[in-house]
Amino acid sequence: MDTLELLGHPVRLRIVHAMRGGRTRTTAQLCALLPDVSKAMVYRHVDLLAAGGVLEVADERRVRGATERHYRLRPERASIAPDTAASLSPDDHRRGFAVAVAALVAEFNAYLDRDTTNPATDPVGYQQHAIWLNREELTAMISELRNAILPRLANPPAPDRTRYLLSPILFPSEEPAADTD
Predict the structure, then answer these.
(1) Which of 82, 103, 141, 147 could cross-link to 13 by cystine, CB 3.0-4.6 Å?
(2) Domain that holds residue 33
C-alpha cells in the first residue's frame, strides 16, 4: 500500500495526527485518544500504518505475557510528496479532501464529547472567510501563513502544551474574472 492510500482513510489520518511531535504511543494509548473508534479498528489501522512504513516500532515490552509495542511516526513517510500531489486527478483530490474533512469532523466530535469541553471559552474557531486576492497577494498571504505555522510544527509535546489541530483550507470558489482587454 502506498503512502497516498495509507493516508486515505480518516482513522489512519487521525492516528498520524496523534503521533506527531516525536511521540511514542501504544495502540492502547491511541484507543484512549480515539474513543469513538472501536479498538479492533484502531489495531487494524495501526498494523496497516506499520506495515506501510508510516509507523515504526520504537520499543517492545512484555506486559502480562503479551508484547506491548510503542510506535513512533516516520514523518518522512507521513505526508504526500508535492510531485505526487501534482499528479493526482480531480477525483483523487475529491477523495483526499473528503478524507481530510471526515478526519476533521471526527476530531471535532471527539473534542465535543469530552466532559471538559467548552467551545465558548476554549480557543476554538471554524469561521470561513471569502477574500479577494490577486496572484501576488495570494502568494504573499500563503508565505505569511507558512512563516507563522512552520516554526511551530517543530514544537515538541510538553506539559504546558496542548495539541491543536490546525487545518487551513484554501481554494478558489469562483472562476477567475475574464480579461476584458
Answers:
(1) 103
(2) 3-112
What CATH number is given to the structural domain containing 64?
1.10.10.10
Q: Would the pTM of this model clear 0.85, i.e. be above it?
A: no
46: nearest Cα among 21, 20, 14, 22 = 14
- C-alpha torsion 24→28→33→35, nearest 10: 170
Q: Which three cell numbers stand for residue 98?
A: 473528503
The kind and range of the H/E element at 97 are helix 90-113
Collect all residues with Cβ–Cβ distance below 8 Å to 11 and sequence separation of at least 6. Answer: 34, 37, 41, 42, 45, 103, 106
Q: Is position 72 within any domain? A: yes
Count of structural domains within the chain = 1
pLDDT in the model for residue 2: 83
Express each pLDDT in 69-120 by its tens digit. Answer: 999 999 989 988 889 899 999 999 999 999 999 999 999 999 999 899 999 8
Helix 90-113 vs helix 10-19: crossing angle, to nearest 10: 60
Please write the tens of the pLDDT for every residue from 23-76. 899 999 999 999 999 999 999 999 999 999 999 999 999 888 888 999 999 998
Specify if 107 maps to a domain.
yes
- Please list, in sequence order, all residues whose beta carbon lies within 8 angstroms of the beta carbon of residue 60, skipping any fewer than 6 positions away: 67, 68, 69, 70
Q: Phi and psi dihedrals of 161, rounded to 5?
A: -115, 145
